[in-house]
Amino acid sequence: MVRPPRQDRPPPAAGLLLGRFFGVPVYLSPSWFVIAAIVTFSYTDEVGLLVPGIDRATAAMVGLGIAVLFAVSLLAHELGHVATCLGLGLRVRRVVIFLLGGVSEIEGEPRGPAEEYLVAVAGPLVTLLLAGVFTAGAMTAPGHTIARAMLTILAVSNLIVAVFNLLPGLPLDGGQLLRSGVWRLTGSRLAGTRAAAWTGRALAVLIMVTGMFAVPAGNLVAATGSLLLASLLAVFIWVGAGQALIAATISDRLPQLRLADLIRPSLQVPADLPISEALRRAWQARAQGLIVVDGTGRPTAVVSEARVMAVPEQRRPWTSVAEVSHHLRDELVIPHTLSGPELFERMRASQAMEYVVTDPAGQAIGVVTANDLARLMQQWRAAGGGPRHDTTGAPR
Ligand SMILES: [Zn+2]
Q1: What are the residue ranges in the chain where pLDDT is below 50?
Q2: CA of 350 to the centre of ligand 1 (A)
């Protein structure tokens, strides 16, 4: 599955770094070890049945081998998405293998329904291919052997993963396929997201209901396990569908983003001015931002609201604005012509709280803050959801 990342910063470690695929970091989340333990445990008995005479310790080792190969299969699925993205020129932030499957975090969005379709279909195609290869292997392997048991279980697991991920609801791959279809028909990605997010939510309810009624009778451990798994999947899909809707709503409105909606009337102050006096002047001028300027009137720093608030009232007459400011490095300066997705990306990438907007002559016009942008997004979100996830369904 594929989802947009939260920011453009170097990705924080999401677990164990397994390696890089064309520069894209691939992580193994600590939560994967939970599913590995469950897979190992639950396949030990099954391997015992498929390979008569195998001792329990060996069966457990085979179970562990299946868990690892299953993770490799999921990774191959994700790399299918990633390779397609890279081929289309879409950047991928990272790949994470976790409790419920894998996720590829894509930066930017597909430029059309065809791209969306190709990125979405690549993962399940890889998984179906693997299911075919494992099936062929299982059919040629001698009966009642460890190799045949492993290949059979892996073939079935991959088939389940492919089918499950093709279910037509976001955040699953099938949801993205549905979105690409509606996008193609209506010309609106948001319409596609709305449709696929609602089918995603319907799927979540269906999985929960199925989990409640299809519990194995008479086996409390299995019943609890299947209910827990159904709940996890249902919540995961429900939340993912909502996030997809929010992300699509925001990206749909991003072209309307204007600096004029965000810019705060600001006051220019010299670096040595005490905070208390700067605040008094700002209040008098009804300014909501403070920009530090040098002797020639050029902006050199922007006052941090958080740092000001951290200075006790009685210290403010003795603390200069320079001490509570951020030096204006390039990423804190926003040209007044910036708007739309470029403006959003600029602010998201630098992750600062305050920015100074400048005119072509380099003079400060005002301050924009990350909080104001977040508030605006919040208003947009009130209207409506982004990410797509892959889940394995059950590993069996
Ligand atoms: Zn996928």
Answers
A1: 6-11, 384-389, 391-396
A2: 29
Phi, psi of 308 (to 5 degrees): -60, -45
CA 392 to centroid of ligand 1, rounded, Å:
9
In the reported structure, the alpha carbon of residue 261 is separated from the centroid of ligand 1 by a whole-number distance in angstroms of: 37
Q: What is the DSSP letter of 274?
A: B
pLDDT value for 377? 83
Please name every residue paired with 269 in a beta bridge, in sequence order, or none if there are none.
292
Distances (CA, A) of 127 to 110, 121, 122, 133: 22, 10, 9, 10
Closest CA to 106 of 117, 97, 119: 119
What's the CATH number of domain 259-381, 3.40.50.2300, 3.40.50.1220, 3.20.20.70, 3.10.580.10?
3.10.580.10
Question: 266: which strand partners?
Answer: 289
pLDDT of residue 33: 87
pLDDT at residue 216, rounded to an integer? 67
Residues carrying CATH 3.10.580.10, the chain? 259-381
Q: Tell me which DSSP letter residue 323 carries.
A: G
Peptide bond before residue 113 is cis, with ω within 30 degrees of 0: no
Could you read off the pLDDT of 120-154 as tens digits, one per residue? 999 999 999 999 999 999 899 887 888 888 899 89
Distinct helix (H) and strand (E) counts, the chain: 11, 12
Tens of pLDDT, residue by residue over 304-357, are 988 989 999 999 999 999 999 999 888 899 988 888 888 888 888 788 899 999
Whether residue 35 contacts residue 29, with contact meaning beta carbons closer than 8 Å, is answered with no
* 255 Cα to the center of ligand 1, angstroms: 28
C-alpha of residue 92 to centroid of ligand 1, in Å:
14
